[in-house]
Amino acid sequence: MFTIASSALLFSSLVIAMENTQKDYSFSLATKNDSAAIVDLINTQATKDADKIVILPESFRLSAIANASNKERLFVARDITQGEKIVAFKKLFLLTDNQERNEIMQDEIRCIGSKSESTFAGMIKKGAVTTLNTHPTFGQDDLYIYNGGDFTHPDYRKNGLNKELSQHAFSTIFSDQLSKQSPARIHLLFGLVQANSGSNVGEKGDRAIPLADVFSNFIRQVYPNTKDDISLTYHRYKAFMPTFDPTSSECKPLPDEKAIPGYGCILTYENNADASQSGKVQE
Protein backbone atom coordinates (compact mmCIF):
# COMPACT_ATOMS: atom_id res chain seq x y z
CA MET A 1 0.00 0.00 0.00
CA PHE A 2 1.22 3.51 -0.83
CA THR A 3 1.38 5.96 2.07
CA ILE A 4 1.38 9.70 1.53
CA ALA A 5 5.11 9.75 2.24
CA SER A 6 5.92 6.90 -0.14
CA SER A 7 3.72 8.42 -2.85
CA ALA A 8 5.49 11.75 -2.46
CA LEU A 9 8.86 10.03 -2.67
CA LEU A 10 7.80 8.18 -5.80
CA PHE A 11 6.52 11.40 -7.38
CA SER A 12 9.76 13.19 -6.53
CA SER A 13 11.76 10.37 -8.06
CA LEU A 14 9.69 10.53 -11.24
CA VAL A 15 10.17 14.28 -11.49
CA ILE A 16 13.92 13.90 -11.03
CA ALA A 17 14.01 11.17 -13.67
CA MET A 18 12.09 13.34 -16.12
CA GLU A 19 14.36 16.31 -15.44
CA ASN A 20 17.44 14.16 -15.93
CA THR A 21 16.08 12.84 -19.22
CA GLN A 22 15.42 16.34 -20.48
CA LYS A 23 18.82 17.54 -19.30
CA ASP A 24 21.00 14.68 -20.53
CA TYR A 25 19.52 14.06 -23.97
CA SER A 26 18.73 15.94 -27.15
CA PHE A 27 16.30 14.91 -29.89
CA SER A 28 16.41 15.77 -33.57
CA LEU A 29 15.94 14.62 -37.11
CA ALA A 30 18.82 12.43 -38.22
CA THR A 31 21.12 13.83 -40.89
CA LYS A 32 23.18 12.02 -43.48
CA ASN A 33 26.22 12.64 -41.27
CA ASP A 34 24.59 10.50 -38.56
CA SER A 35 24.29 7.47 -40.81
CA ALA A 36 27.52 5.73 -39.78
CA ALA A 37 26.74 6.13 -36.07
CA ILE A 38 23.22 4.76 -36.51
CA VAL A 39 24.50 1.79 -38.50
CA ASP A 40 27.06 1.13 -35.78
CA LEU A 41 24.24 1.09 -33.21
CA ILE A 42 22.36 -1.38 -35.44
CA ASN A 43 25.39 -3.61 -36.00
CA THR A 44 26.52 -3.73 -32.38
CA GLN A 45 23.19 -3.68 -30.54
CA ALA A 46 20.01 -3.81 -32.63
CA THR A 47 21.00 -7.03 -34.39
CA LYS A 48 20.63 -8.74 -31.00
CA ASP A 49 16.91 -7.88 -31.23
CA ALA A 50 16.52 -9.07 -34.82
CA ASP A 51 13.39 -10.96 -33.77
CA LYS A 52 11.70 -7.65 -32.85
CA ILE A 53 13.04 -5.04 -35.27
CA VAL A 54 13.57 -5.08 -39.02
CA ILE A 55 17.27 -5.54 -39.81
CA LEU A 56 18.25 -5.19 -43.44
CA PRO A 57 21.09 -7.19 -45.01
CA GLU A 58 24.38 -5.74 -43.87
CA SER A 59 25.42 -4.35 -47.26
CA PHE A 60 22.21 -2.28 -47.51
CA ARG A 61 22.09 -0.72 -44.04
CA LEU A 62 24.18 2.39 -44.61
CA SER A 63 22.42 3.42 -47.83
CA ALA A 64 18.98 2.78 -46.31
CA ILE A 65 19.73 4.89 -43.24
CA ALA A 66 21.19 7.69 -45.37
CA ASN A 67 18.12 7.62 -47.62
CA ALA A 68 15.72 7.76 -44.66
CA SER A 69 17.70 10.65 -43.18
CA ASN A 70 17.67 12.58 -46.46
CA LYS A 71 13.89 12.18 -46.60
CA GLU A 72 13.59 13.40 -42.98
CA ARG A 73 12.01 10.15 -41.86
CA LEU A 74 14.42 9.24 -39.09
CA PHE A 75 14.81 10.74 -35.62
CA VAL A 76 17.56 10.24 -33.07
CA ALA A 77 18.22 10.72 -29.37
CA ARG A 78 21.71 11.81 -28.31
CA ASP A 79 23.42 11.52 -24.95
CA ILE A 80 24.88 14.99 -24.53
CA THR A 81 26.99 13.81 -21.60
CA GLN A 82 28.78 11.41 -23.97
CA GLY A 83 29.70 13.74 -26.78
CA GLU A 84 26.29 13.68 -28.50
CA LYS A 85 26.44 9.90 -28.81
CA ILE A 86 23.40 8.51 -30.67
CA VAL A 87 21.67 6.08 -28.31
CA ALA A 88 18.25 5.67 -29.92
CA PHE A 89 16.53 6.09 -33.26
CA LYS A 90 12.96 6.06 -34.55
CA LYS A 91 11.40 6.06 -38.00
CA LEU A 92 8.23 8.14 -38.38
CA PHE A 93 6.82 9.92 -41.41
CA LEU A 94 3.70 11.01 -43.26
CA LEU A 95 2.57 8.74 -46.08
CA THR A 96 1.88 11.29 -48.79
CA ASP A 97 2.63 9.13 -51.84
CA ASN A 98 -0.45 7.09 -52.73
CA GLN A 99 1.50 4.20 -54.23
CA GLU A 100 3.82 3.89 -51.24
CA ARG A 101 0.87 4.12 -48.86
CA ASN A 102 -1.08 1.40 -50.66
CA GLU A 103 1.96 -0.89 -50.82
CA ILE A 104 2.55 -0.55 -47.07
CA MET A 105 -1.13 -1.06 -46.28
CA GLN A 106 -1.37 -4.11 -48.54
CA ASP A 107 2.01 -5.83 -48.12
CA GLU A 108 3.13 -4.88 -44.61
CA ILE A 109 0.11 -3.89 -42.51
CA ARG A 110 -2.16 -6.11 -44.63
CA CYS A 111 -5.30 -4.13 -43.85
CA ILE A 112 -6.33 -4.16 -47.52
CA GLY A 113 -5.93 -6.61 -50.36
CA SER A 114 -6.27 -10.36 -50.74
CA LYS A 115 -3.98 -11.18 -47.80
CA SER A 116 -5.95 -9.09 -45.32
CA GLU A 117 -7.11 -11.09 -42.28
CA SER A 118 -8.48 -9.15 -39.32
CA THR A 119 -7.60 -10.51 -35.87
CA PHE A 120 -9.00 -7.72 -33.68
CA ALA A 121 -11.25 -4.66 -33.89
CA GLY A 122 -11.90 -2.38 -30.96
CA MET A 123 -11.25 0.91 -29.23
CA ILE A 124 -8.64 2.38 -26.91
CA LYS A 125 -9.80 5.03 -24.47
CA LYS A 126 -7.80 6.11 -21.42
CA GLY A 127 -5.56 3.09 -21.84
CA ALA A 128 -8.46 0.62 -21.72
CA VAL A 129 -9.32 -1.59 -24.69
CA THR A 130 -12.83 -2.65 -25.62
CA THR A 131 -13.91 -4.93 -28.46
CA LEU A 132 -16.14 -3.51 -31.19
CA ASN A 133 -17.52 -4.81 -34.44
CA THR A 134 -15.93 -2.12 -36.58
CA HIS A 135 -14.16 -1.83 -39.90
CA PRO A 136 -11.80 1.04 -40.67
CA THR A 137 -12.69 3.60 -43.31
CA PHE A 138 -9.82 4.92 -45.39
CA GLY A 139 -10.47 8.30 -47.01
CA GLN A 140 -8.49 9.84 -49.83
CA ASP A 141 -8.10 13.02 -47.80
CA ASP A 142 -7.27 11.29 -44.53
CA LEU A 143 -3.84 11.63 -42.98
CA TYR A 144 -1.66 8.51 -42.85
CA ILE A 145 1.37 8.28 -40.58
CA TYR A 146 3.80 5.38 -40.71
CA ASN A 147 5.41 4.47 -37.39
CA GLY A 148 8.41 2.36 -38.38
CA GLY A 149 11.14 0.64 -36.42
CA ASP A 150 12.66 2.14 -33.30
CA PHE A 151 15.51 1.04 -31.11
CA THR A 152 17.06 2.21 -27.86
CA HIS A 153 20.47 1.09 -26.65
CA PRO A 154 19.93 -1.39 -23.77
CA ASP A 155 21.88 0.83 -21.37
CA TYR A 156 19.38 3.66 -21.92
CA ARG A 157 16.09 1.84 -21.55
CA LYS A 158 13.38 2.19 -18.88
CA ASN A 159 13.88 5.92 -18.35
CA GLY A 160 11.26 7.28 -20.74
CA LEU A 161 13.76 8.01 -23.51
CA ASN A 162 11.82 6.22 -26.26
CA LYS A 163 8.61 8.03 -25.32
CA GLU A 164 10.33 11.42 -25.42
CA LEU A 165 11.89 10.63 -28.78
CA SER A 166 8.48 9.58 -30.10
CA GLN A 167 6.86 12.77 -28.82
CA HIS A 168 9.57 14.84 -30.48
CA ALA A 169 9.05 13.00 -33.78
CA PHE A 170 5.27 13.55 -33.74
CA SER A 171 5.69 17.21 -32.78
CA THR A 172 8.12 17.74 -35.64
CA ILE A 173 5.67 16.26 -38.11
CA PHE A 174 2.97 18.57 -36.77
CA SER A 175 5.00 21.76 -36.75
CA ASP A 176 6.60 21.18 -40.15
CA GLN A 177 3.71 19.80 -42.19
CA LEU A 178 0.38 19.80 -40.36
CA SER A 179 -0.14 23.05 -38.51
CA LYS A 180 -2.52 24.37 -41.17
CA GLN A 181 -4.39 21.12 -41.88
CA SER A 182 -7.38 19.51 -40.22
CA PRO A 183 -7.89 16.06 -41.78
CA ALA A 184 -11.09 14.10 -41.28
CA ARG A 185 -9.23 11.07 -39.97
CA ILE A 186 -5.70 10.36 -38.87
CA HIS A 187 -4.42 6.80 -39.20
CA LEU A 188 -1.27 5.58 -37.49
CA LEU A 189 0.12 2.48 -39.20
CA PHE A 190 2.60 0.23 -37.42
CA GLY A 191 3.65 -3.35 -36.99
CA LEU A 192 4.04 -5.50 -33.89
CA VAL A 193 5.77 -8.83 -33.55
CA GLN A 194 4.05 -11.24 -31.22
CA ALA A 195 6.68 -10.62 -28.52
CA ASN A 196 5.60 -6.95 -28.39
CA SER A 197 1.86 -7.50 -28.67
CA GLY A 198 1.01 -8.78 -25.18
CA SER A 199 -0.57 -12.08 -24.22
CA ASN A 200 -3.93 -10.53 -25.08
CA VAL A 201 -4.88 -7.31 -26.84
CA GLY A 202 -4.54 -4.33 -24.53
CA GLU A 203 -2.79 -6.21 -21.74
CA LYS A 204 0.73 -5.75 -20.42
CA GLY A 205 3.25 -5.98 -23.22
CA ASP A 206 0.97 -4.62 -25.94
CA ARG A 207 3.08 -1.76 -27.27
CA ALA A 208 0.04 -0.26 -28.96
CA ILE A 209 -1.08 1.10 -25.58
CA PRO A 210 1.89 3.42 -24.87
CA LEU A 211 1.96 4.32 -28.55
CA ALA A 212 -1.71 5.31 -28.33
CA ASP A 213 -0.82 7.66 -25.47
CA VAL A 214 1.80 9.45 -27.58
CA PHE A 215 -0.54 9.47 -30.58
CA SER A 216 -3.30 11.03 -28.46
CA ASN A 217 -0.98 13.86 -27.47
CA PHE A 218 -0.34 14.41 -31.17
CA ILE A 219 -4.10 14.48 -31.84
CA ARG A 220 -4.44 17.30 -29.32
CA GLN A 221 -1.92 19.31 -31.34
CA VAL A 222 -3.83 18.79 -34.58
CA TYR A 223 -7.22 19.42 -32.94
CA PRO A 224 -6.62 21.83 -30.01
CA ASN A 225 -10.27 21.65 -28.87
CA THR A 226 -10.27 17.87 -28.53
CA LYS A 227 -11.46 16.45 -25.21
CA ASP A 228 -8.91 14.80 -22.95
CA ASP A 229 -10.56 11.38 -23.18
CA ILE A 230 -9.64 10.68 -26.79
CA SER A 231 -11.05 7.51 -28.36
CA LEU A 232 -8.99 5.65 -30.94
CA THR A 233 -10.14 2.68 -32.96
CA TYR A 234 -7.61 -0.14 -32.86
CA HIS A 235 -7.41 -2.74 -35.62
CA ARG A 236 -5.03 -5.66 -35.94
CA TYR A 237 -4.34 -7.86 -38.94
CA LYS A 238 -2.33 -11.03 -39.34
CA ALA A 239 1.05 -10.04 -40.72
CA PHE A 240 4.74 -10.81 -40.64
CA MET A 241 7.69 -8.58 -39.81
CA PRO A 242 9.80 -8.04 -42.93
CA THR A 243 12.66 -10.44 -42.26
CA PHE A 244 15.93 -10.56 -44.17
CA ASP A 245 18.95 -12.80 -44.52
CA PRO A 246 21.68 -10.57 -43.00
CA THR A 247 24.27 -11.80 -45.51
CA SER A 248 22.08 -11.57 -48.61
CA SER A 249 23.26 -9.67 -51.67
CA GLU A 250 19.70 -8.55 -52.40
CA CYS A 251 17.33 -6.54 -50.23
CA LYS A 252 14.36 -8.87 -50.49
CA PRO A 253 12.26 -10.05 -47.52
CA LEU A 254 12.04 -13.75 -46.80
CA PRO A 255 8.72 -15.50 -47.54
CA ASP A 256 6.08 -15.60 -44.80
CA GLU A 257 6.98 -19.12 -43.71
CA LYS A 258 10.48 -17.91 -42.85
CA ALA A 259 9.46 -14.52 -41.44
CA ILE A 260 8.65 -13.50 -37.88
CA PRO A 261 4.88 -13.57 -37.21
CA GLY A 262 3.09 -10.58 -35.83
CA TYR A 263 0.39 -8.04 -36.59
CA GLY A 264 -0.18 -5.09 -38.82
CA CYS A 265 -1.90 -2.43 -36.71
CA ILE A 266 -3.86 0.76 -37.20
CA LEU A 267 -4.84 3.36 -34.65
CA THR A 268 -7.39 5.80 -36.03
CA TYR A 269 -8.75 9.06 -34.73
CA GLU A 270 -11.88 10.35 -36.45
CA ASN A 271 -12.78 14.00 -36.41
CA ASN A 272 -16.55 13.53 -36.59
CA ALA A 273 -17.19 17.00 -37.93
CA ASP A 274 -15.19 16.33 -41.09
CA ALA A 275 -15.11 12.56 -41.56
CA SER A 276 -18.31 12.34 -43.58
CA GLN A 277 -16.79 14.60 -46.23
CA SER A 278 -13.98 12.17 -47.07
CA GLY A 279 -14.13 9.58 -49.84
CA LYS A 280 -12.98 5.99 -49.54
CA VAL A 281 -9.69 4.51 -50.69
CA GLN A 282 -9.99 1.73 -53.22
CA GLU A 283 -9.20 -1.59 -51.50
Present the secondary structure layout:
Layout: H1 4-24, E1 25-29, H2 35-44, H3 61-70, E2 74-79, E3 85-94, H4 98-109, E4 118-125, E5 128-131, E6 143-152, H5 161-178, E7 185-193, H6 208-222, E8 231-241, E9 260-270, H7 272-275
Parallel strand pairs: 6-7
Antiparallel strand pairs: 1-2, 2-3, 3-6, 4-5, 4-8, 7-9, 8-9
Helix pairs in contact: 2-3, 5-6
Relevant terms:
283 residues, 26% strand, nine-stranded mixed sheet, alpha+beta, disordered C terminus, Aminopeptidase
Short description:
This protein is of the alpha+beta class and 283 residues long. Helices cover 32% and strands 26% of the residues.
Structural classification: alpha+beta
Order of helices and strands: HEHHEEHEEEHEHEEH
Q: Briefly note the CATH topology name.
A: Aminopeptidase
- How many strands? 9
Helix content: 25-40%
Number of domains: 1
Distance between the termini: 52 Å
**Unreliable runs:** 1-21, 273-283
Strand content range: 25-35%
The side-by-side strand order for the widest beta sheet comes to: 1-2-3-6-7-9-8-4-5
Rg, nearest Å: 19 Å
* Major sheet description: 9 strands, mixed
Shape, please? Answer: globular
Number of alpha- plus pi-helical segments: 7
Oligomeric category: single chain
Query: What's the CATH H-level superfamily name?
Result: Gcn5-related N-acetyltransferase (GNAT)
Whole-number average pLDDT? 86
Overall CATH class:
Alpha Beta
Which architecture per CATH? 3-Layer(aba) Sandwich
